[in-house]
Amino acid sequence: xxxxxxxxxSGRINLTTDDLTLHxxxxxxxxxxxxxxxxxxxPVILGYPWLNQHGxxxxxxxxxxxxxxxxxxxxxxxxQVKPAQALNKPGLTSSIPSEYQDLxxxxxRTKATHLPPHRPGDCAxxxxxxxxxxxxxxxxxxxAESEAMHKYIQEELAKGFIAPSTSPASAGFFFVKKxxxxxxxxxxxxxxxxxxxxxxYPLPLVxxxxxxxxxxxxxxxxxxxxxxNLIRIRAGDEWKTAFxxxxxxxxxxxxxxxxxxxxxxxxxxxxxxxxxxxxxxxxVYIDDxxxxxxxxxxxxxxxxxxxxxxxxxxxxxxEEKCEFHRDKxxxxxxIISSEGVAIDDKKVEAVLNWPRPSTLRELQRFLGFANFYxxxxxxxxxxxxxxxxMVKKGTSRxxxxxxxxxxxxxxxxxxxxxxxxxxxxxxKPFVVEVDASSTGVGAVLSQRQGEPPKLFPCAYFSHxxxxxxxxxxxxNCELLxxxxxxxxxxxxxxxxxxxxxxxEGVGNLEEAASQxxxxxxxxxxxxxxxxxxxxxxxxxxxxxxxRRDLGSPxxxxxxxxxxxxxxxxxxxxEEGVDPGDGHLLAPGVxxxxxxx
Length: 596
What we know:
The protein folds into 3 domains: 143-325, HIV Type 1 Reverse Transcriptase, subunit A, domain 1 (HIV Type 1 Reverse Transcriptase, Chain A, domain 1, Roll), CATH 3.10.10.10; 342-407, no CATH class; 421-592, Ubiquitin-like (UB roll) (Roll). It is an alpha+beta fold. Helix 9 (345-352) runs antiparallel to helix 12, helix 10 packs antiparallel against helix 11 (380-393) and helix 11 (380-393) packs across helix 12 (402-416). It is built from 15 helices and 26 strands. It starts with 19 loop residues before the first strand and ends with a helix. Belongs to the beta type-B retroviral polymerase family. HERV class-II K(HML-2) pol subfamily. Keywords: Endonuclease, Hydrolase, Multifunctional enzyme, Nuclease, Nucleotidyltransferase, Transferase. Residues 157-336 form the Reverse transcriptase domain. This is ribonuclease H.
């Protein structure tokens, strides 16, 4: 039968077309013959044999083909530089999408080994006045490490990345094992770093950077090859990088790993390279580059622009670590998609297999890891409170209480079930929920998305109460949760929050608000100014609705009100607090009334 389900009569197909030219945008072309069948729903059908030979990778959201098989690169794709020609060039391969075949130079292994030129962004090593780099140890090496060291020294000398040195400085040389079992050379620059003036250029805040991906549908990731070695040491500072081995004394001409200023120096340089693209379609974190776009055609333009920029600055990418035209991609420990941001599965697996810490340092490592992903865990501070209390004790050997054991297991379980944080839509209302306990407060920023609309989390916030805050009543703790959460969220979602509906029984409050925007005062301090009375309906102590209003003032604050106690607003000012003419107070009695 045909693909549309109708029988083909005798089952025989005895008609074929003449040779036809099949064009598939943008650059795929081939000569092909078709069998003729009655198929009114599908004028052309490319069957399994064709799919098997051509191996197209399809971006379903854009209905475009993003990658072809080696057969297509050899016979069907027509680009400015043919893949067959590119293959003849040393150090180049053609597993890059056809759209970038003329830019294969960017993935050259050979060019990445050339000594880079001096640039304005060269790595400077400025020492504290009067200080000199100390002399380090010569570390003993095993037989395998000695062979690896000899090979490394010869390769780096051949590339010009290091040179023999007569410097009075000296740092130790050793190896650490890679995950794949290989050996990574390391220089012990701790002594040099102690006397180096630190360069405080900031690294990107990854969670904040990911907020700009709201409308992105396609992603490409590039990883630069030997990134730090692409930067030269400032002329005259090479002697400060000197290191000693059992076979000689050398100094770096390119920026090595281990220098205190290496990350900041490289970030400053790469930001200048992509200055006009940053936060528009590019995120760069040191040597990791993420390109994002809302459509296929736009994405190809963006990727080409990035590749051309890298080539012009003699920066080269690792082809084997690059990913192109993905609708879901792993980047800096996150899984990013058009839907939202989630924890990388590898990180989830790591935390599930994390053994119970037995020392203070091991516990600090676990909490540091967990804290990096706290935005995915509801009420993180409250859940982790027994563990942070153990850290504050400062004892090297840990004594695990039942509460601490429960917290450790609970955190691991929450990581395994952490939700996708959806990209917020600024045109839709937000829902904010708050929780308060005796140890901490938390809040959830959510939004209804999809058809039919469902409530999805966009962000979590948590805060461990200070000793003074532990004395707050429930109402004040909830106010604190809203205050702190909005302070954090408004960094990325600057808008006014207003009620999602007209709750029955608060019309008098709205009328009062129309006389002028009253402030909310907590502990005598005006923390936010309210433009509209907010919805007071809550379930189990959780605020139900808050909505964004684009173009309005950037900040607001919620004070819980109920129809029963709403008339008390302004009638019970707290002692010593004068909000001024035309302002209203939110006293404790209005926060502690039933249902408030």
